[in-house]
């Protein structure tokens, strides 16, 4: 359950017999993770835009990858519009109160989406250290992957997606015989179990949610899981699934 400071403040005012001012209904309504204080649209820029881009990173369109650069351009507008469509909001590509309210519903207090957690994306160690990037970067990369998975999960009927693992340090990667160039070392790779969805459904759906790397059945060593990750160029290979 999200924490909101508005309700406790109202309760204190009422107890003291003070009539509260009209409740804030704009983007500044508070959230325990991150609070947007203005409406965002094409042409705006800043950290608040980058935070929005993280939350809509799973809506870039087929084969797309949304840049997390803090610049609200046409690609961000399109991703916001797809997010709005997915949740039955007015799809104008402008992030205002209704869009932020939905994001607040979808995120926990540590900024992870409600259906995924840092713990399940790291079976290696507790501090995200020892990979090919800093611990902070690996953790940040994992957060983006989780938001992409949240979008993918919603598109697949909100049925659970099984996560088998994510980040690996160099030592953890060596222990499982991973490639020295594995994206797991960067924190942006996730291995998925078949679960209720099935491997091929997962591999096919992942093409719509910002993953440049998709490996699955028919690709060497991936008949028992689907691997999704970010990389600079696209590499999709799950031949048994037509990917």
Topology:
Layout: H1 6-15, H2 47-55, H3 74-86, H4 97-106, H5 135-155, E1 163-165, H6 170-175, E2 189-192, H7 199-205, E3 213-215, E4 226-229, E5 235-237
Parallel strand pairs: 3-5
Antiparallel strand pairs: 1-2, 2-4, 3-4
Commentary on this structure:
Residues 45-103 form the Peptidoglycan binding-like domain. InterPro entries: Peptidase_M15A_C, Peptidoglycan-bd-like, PGBD-like_sf, PGBDSf, Zn_M74/Hedgehog-like. Residues 1-21 form the signal peptide. It holds the Pfam family Peptidase_M15_3. The protein has 243 residues and is α+β, with helices and mostly antiparallel strands. It has helices at 6-15, 47-55, 74-86, 97-106, 135-155, 170-175, 199-205; strands at residues 163-165, 189-192, 213-215, 226-229, 235-237. The chain is globular and about 50 Å long. Residues 1-25 have low confidence and may be disordered.
Oligomeric assembly: single chain
Task: Kindly state the percentage of residues in helix.
Answer: 25-40%
Mean pLDDT over the residues: 91
The coarse silhouette is globular
Instruction: Please give the largest β-sheet.
Output: 5 strands, mixed
Strand/helix succession = HHHHHEHEHEEE
Number of helices: 7
Ranges with pLDDT <50 over ≥5 residues? 1-25
Domain Peptidoglycan binding-like: 45-103
Pfam families: Peptidase_M15_3, PG_binding_1
Protein name: D-Ala-D-Ala carboxypeptidase family metallohydrolase
Keywords: Carboxypeptidase, Hydrolase, Protease, Signal
Q: Tags for this entry?
A:
about 240 residues, five-stranded mixed β-sheet, single chain, alpha+beta, globular, disordered N terminus
């Amino acid at each position: 359950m999200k924490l909101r400071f508005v309700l406790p403040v109202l309760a204190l005012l009422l107890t003291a017999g003070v009539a509260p001012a009209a409740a804030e209904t704009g983007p500044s309504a508070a959230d325990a993770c991150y609070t947007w204080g203005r409406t965002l649209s094409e042409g705006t820029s800043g950290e608040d835009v980058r935070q929005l881009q993280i939350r809509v990173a799973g809506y870039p369109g087929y084969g797309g990858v949304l840049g997390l650069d803090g610049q609200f351009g046409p690609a961000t507008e399109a991703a916001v519009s797809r997010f709005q469509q997915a949740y039955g909001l007015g799809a104008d590509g402008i992030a205002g109160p209704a869009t932020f309210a939905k994001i607040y519903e979808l995120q926990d207090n540590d900024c992870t989406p409600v259906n995924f957690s840092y713990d399940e994306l790291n079976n290696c160690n507790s501090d995200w250290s020892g990979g090919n990037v800093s611990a902070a970067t690996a953790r940040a990369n994992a957060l983006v992957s989780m938001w992409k998975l949240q979008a993918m999960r919603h598109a697949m009927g909100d049925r659970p997606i099984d996560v088998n693992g994510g980040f690996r340090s160099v030592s953890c990667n060596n222990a499982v015989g991973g490639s020295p160039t594995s994206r797991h070392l960067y924190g942006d790779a996730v291995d998925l179990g078949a679960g209720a969805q099935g491997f091929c459904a997962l591999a096919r759906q992942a093409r719509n949610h910002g993953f440049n790397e998709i490996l699955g059945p028919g690709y060497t060593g991936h008949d028992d899981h689907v691997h999704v990750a970010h990389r600079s160029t696209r590499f999709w290979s799950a031949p048994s699934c037509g990917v």
